[in-house]
Specification:
Layout lengths: L14 H7 L1 H5 L1 H10 L49 E7 L7 H17 L1 E6 L16 H7 L9 E3 L21 H6 L6 E2 L5 E6 L1 H5 L6 E7 L21 H16 L4 E5 L28 H11 L5 E4 L5 E4 L9 E5 L16 E5 L3 E9 L3 E9 L4 E10 L6
Parallel strand pairs: 1-2, 2-3, 3-4, 6-7, 7-8, 8-10
Antiparallel strand pairs: 1-12, 5-6, 9-10, 9-11, 12-13, 13-14
Length: 407
């Protein structure tokens, strides 16, 4: 589901129940997409993807650094091994980008200019990478038309997370078939940009001191990429492996808890498609889209994970899902953790705030992206809006904090 689609008529239905509950919905645009999903679709094989490329060696809970410059031995754009000349890592933040339409191309073109000027060496894709139903295979041509082509020139590793549209079941955006996300993990094996070694993972980037002294020390920043979809789907999960209390979510929660506890990074940043707090249309975890019952549609169990595992331990939660740009204030409720929503790289919001969580800055109507900078001294987030017609970005807000959480 997204801002320009209807919300299901009731919480925690199966997909078939959802369609039967609203025959008019089933006959409209959503019904047409359902019929397309049921039909046999033939898509051209994505040219240039190397079949059988060696898998990335990074597993949940581990991270392996790449070469410092150029491309890695496997042809991939490598993770940086030291901060840039300004003594910081500059990171491009985008979300909900994968439409393949003009707005996505415009945002990427504007971001290219900013990234060159700012020395950006890493990008983050916050889910809904392939609209509307996710890829049909790990060599689907939509990887090219909705990711590689728009991001040409943004030649860096992209830390990707799964969104509900990447894990659609029968209904587009339902999040009803998490197993489809495995196709994006598999695609990462052959893409130079797409970095997704597993469905959830962490990546640590070293401090300048580590490189200068040629010794392993505490990382400057560490990213923890979550898969939020099994506990936020608009429909009931049918596969027991992905039940809200099933083995997949138990394992992921244990991994996240252990990884955050073990991390010695100065800055800790959690990536998840669905936000903890959000002033946009979709609302916050535990009451997504106005639902407050059930184990799935409301996101109640994601709220529990954020509050019991993440809040008070991570400096930032970065999310998409809502097609807006928001830099919210850290509060006592979040344990000092700041929520940022950056989901306007392909679609835009409805122009108004729906909730009143304290915000440093927010925008509900424009396309855009953000640039995150982390150094030993501070963490800065620059928000940019993009004029689609001219493909030009304008910096509209800067947020800076000098004290990591818990320091």
């Amino acid at each position: 589901m997204c801002d320009d689609e209807l919300i299901p008529p009731s919480a925690d239905m199966t997909e078939e129940q959802w369609l039967r509950a609203d025959p008019q919905l089933a006959e409209g645009p959503v019904g047409e997409r359902v019929r397309q999903m049921r039909a046999v679709r033939r898509r051209s094989v994505l040219g240039g993807v190397v079949a059988g490329a060696a898998a990335l060696t990074v597993l949940p809970g581990t991270q392996s650094p790449a070469a410092a410059t150029g491309r890695g031995s496997d042809g991939k754009f490598p993770l940086p091994t030291a901060p840039n000349r300004a003594g910081e890592y500059a990171v491009l933040l985008t979300g909900d980008a994968g439409t393949g339409e003009e707005a996505q191309h415009a945002v990427a073109a504007a971001a290219r200019e900013v990234c060159r000027a700012e020395g950006v060496s890493v990008a983050v894709g916050l889910g809904d990478n392939i609209y509307e139903n996710g890829p049909e295979s790990d060599h689907d041509s939509e990887f090219r038309t909705k990711f590689e082509d728009p991001n040409s020139g943004l030649d860096m590793p992209w830390l990707m997370v799964l969104g509900n549209h990447d894990c659609s079941g029968l209904i587009p955006g339902s999040g009803g078939d998490p197993s489809r996300g495995d196709r994006e993990v598999s695609y990462a094996k052959g893409s130079r940009r797409w970095y997704m070694p597993s469905r959830y993972y962490n990546v640590a980037l070293p401090s300048a001191a580590d490189t200068k002294d040629n010794r392993q020390g505490d990382p400057l920043v560490e990213f923890f990429a979550m898969d939020t979809n099994p506990v936020t789907s608009y429909v009931v999960q049918m596969d027991p492996h992905y039940w809200w209390n099933g083995p997949y979510m138990r394992d992921q929660r244990a991994w996240l808890d252990g990884a955050l506890k073990a991390s010695r990074a100065r800055w800790k940043i959690v990536l998840g498609h669905h936000p903890y707090l959000n002033n946009g249309k979709h609302g916050s975890a535990g009451s997504y889209d106005g639902f407050v019952i059930g184990n799935y549609t409301s996101g109640i169990h994601l709220k529990e994970i954020y509050e019991e595992v993440v809040c008070g331990r991570a400096d930032l939660i970065l999310s998409g899902h809502d097609h807006t740009l928001q830099i919210l204030e850290p509060t006592s409720r979040s344990g000092g953790t700041r929520q940022i929503v950056c989901g306007a790289a392909g679609k835009a919001g409805d122009g108004k705030a729906h909730f009143d969580h304290p915000a440093t800055w927010q925008n509900f109507s424009d396309h855009g992206f953000m640039i995150l900078k982390v150094s030993e001294r501070a963490m800065t987030v620059d928000a940019y809006t993009v004029d689609v017609a001219t493909r030009r970005a304008r910096r509209v807000h800067r947020m800076r904090t000098a004290t990591p959480l818990g320091r």
